[in-house]
Design goal:
With 86 residues, the protein is α+β, with helices and mostly antiparallel strands. Helix content is 26%, strand content 7%. It has a two-stranded antiparallel sheet.
């Protein structure tokens, strides 16, 4: 399942550069995560890097975007393939 950033976000800017898929971006008020790009760092790291660095623990799993480890791996592979084409 993809991750999400809650309203507890303090816009500290530490999560965005840690995302290997460029899934984190500044929204209208707080940072947001694009669920189409979020692989929970599958394919890159053992644990989501944004969760590791967040000082306020505001990055839970998104209950509306459920994915299996196999689906996350497939998404990672698709993102990598698209990146290599550019």
């Amino acid at each position: 399942m993809a991750l999400m950033i809650t309203d507890d976000c303090i816009n500290c800017d530490v999560c965005e550069p840690e995302c290997p898929n460029d899934a984190i971006f500044m929204g209208p008020e707080i940072y947001e995560i694009d669920p189409h790009k979020c692989t929970e760092c599958v394919g890159h790291y053992k644990e989501p890097q944004c969760k590791q660095v967040c000082p306020v623990n505001c990055i839970p799993f998104n209950p509306e975007w459920r994915e299996t480890p196999a689906q996350l791996q497939a998404k990672y592979e698709q993102l990598q393939a698209a990146q290599q084409k550019t």
